[in-house]
């Protein structure tokens, strides 16, 4: 792809993001534009949708490179599940002081699950499939532990978390949205800085080592950053699958696999996808609201299957 | 320069890479213990091509990966040292190692689509660069030079997964040349190329040798090694059987030990005069 085309992709992407942002801001809004409502309820919500989408799809792209497997993402690897478990446990102890949601304990949960995955990937006999199986197991483990914890503690307020688990943006407040947005932005930048190492990992672990990359150090560092980012995403918006898988996939089709361009495009694409998904979640069954995770999966999965079918490609 | 146990090779060229007393054992619950290298030593000098021959499972690739620093010797059952220009090679940083000694695997597989040119450009990873600088003019020049040398410039825009095995090996070799090191460890790199490509690449490698590069070549094609290598090392069951010049090494006795139960005849190539191994595919008892 030539330089001009790339510029075009990014320009169109930016405009699309801005458009979806504005659409989401005013969609289903009040008759007379109440500035206060917009500033306190709507703006934080749309902002959160954008940054969480960005965070999830960038971590998806990074995890796919780190584990050299296009099926990896926070959700399929169970890291989201770990983050949610951490958040639930934190909430039951009344740790509501942390910003948007419960990033502190969510990060711990994500980091523990990611560390397990990392240890599995270190074993010489583990293949890509092992890792994915492990992720699915961790995901089950996380949700059952969560259910167990909720049943055992049964403290007030935890039942309301069920809605949050499927992705819930309605809790977003301005301060939390700005703080988590800032963090996600910085973490995305720090992941982006490692594009050279991520590119090298496209040749596989041994290939990257041949190119002079200290794979285990890079993995440790990037897994830590991604876990933190997933922790923030999950604590501010709940568990949202799919974005981390589909957005990097299409971004690669558009602009190629090299991370210098892929990461920013994933950031844009993720932001657009989740902002639009938020619009759908608000209008599909008005006056009720669908959890946003339900929307991404309901629209995303058939779309993905259809495109795979039509293009006769393998994932 | 610090030569540990240097035997010299008769060419009087400075020693570049040396491995001394390398032992290595694979051990895992699933696979059990398997000793794959036992006290192997070898030296590679500037301006020479050394062939590494041995039957399957004799530890050739393991040795290559240890030399390149990809397999760590810091594990139970492993010992020995690797020296590059007299210094402890394995304690150098990864990127520094990759800038000097380049390992070329027999094949590579990509999970994500990349073009041939992008793969070669990945070879420049170890050279570092600025945050937003994808390729410097120097990178560009090196990539073009390497791809032209390895006869893959014409299909540089094609996707790697659409290329044949032989073409992928050309790209892999170009990637190694672009990396900037002048010591190449080639693991079956020429095995899937057709005759004319094999000859062209071998000639190209020979011209690099004359410019002072050093190459360690692993191949199952004994005649390829006999034709192009200056020295050979025979490896069997993780032990070093013999090392010396091609003419010293290629004797019926050595070959029978190396490839037992194979009906071999040792002659010479009528065109080049190099030793040539003929075999009829029958097994002997």
Description:
The complex is a heterodimer of chains A (315) and B (285). With 315 residues, chain A is mainly alpha-helical. Chain A contains 13 helices and no strands. The longest helix of chain A has 32 residues, at 35-66. Chain A is globular, with a radius of gyration of 19 Å. With 285 residues, chain B is an alpha/beta fold. Chain B has nine helices and twelve strands. In chain B, strand 7, helix 6 and strand 8 (214-218) form a beta-alpha-beta unit. Residues 1-11 of chain B have low confidence and may be disordered. The A-B interface holds A 64-65, 68-70, 124-125, 193, 196-197, 199-200, 202-204, 206-207, 209-214, 252, 256-258, 260 and B 28, 30-31, 65, 68-70, 93-99, 102-105, 108-115, 118-119, 122-123, 125-126, 128-129, 131-132, 134, 179.
The helix-strand sequence of chain B is: EEEHEEHEHHHEHEHEEHHEE
Tally of helical runs of chain B: 9
Pair with the biggest interface: A-B, 28 and 38 residues
| Major sheet size, sense and barrel closure of chain A | none
Given as residue ranges, the uncertain stretches of chain A (5+ residues, pLDDT < 50) are: none
Spatially, the strands of the biggest sheet of chain B line up as 6-7-8-3-9-10
List segments of chain B where confidence is low: pLDDT < 50 over at least 5 consecutive residues.
1-11
Please outline the helices and strands:
The complex is a heterodimer of chains A (315) and B (285).
Chain A: H1 3-26, H2 35-66, H3 79-92, H4 103-122, H5 128-153, H6 161-165, H7 174-192, H8 195-201, H9 204-210, H10 215-237, H11 243-255, H12 259-283, H13 292-311
Helix pairs in contact in A: 1-2, 1-12, 2-7, 2-10, 2-11, 2-12, 3-4, 3-5, 3-10, 4-5, 4-10, 7-10, 8-9, 11-12, 12-13
Chain B: E1 15-26, E2 34-45, E3 49-53, H1 60-68, E4 79-84, E5 87-88, H2 94-98, E6 101-104, H3 116-122, H4 137-149, H5 165-179, E7 183-187, H6 195-210, E8 214-218, H7 222-228, E9 231-236, E10 239-245, H8 246-249, H9 252-258, E11 264-268, E12 275-279
Parallel strand pairs in B: 3-8, 3-9, 6-7, 7-8
Antiparallel strand pairs in B: 1-2, 1-4, 4-5, 9-10, 11-12
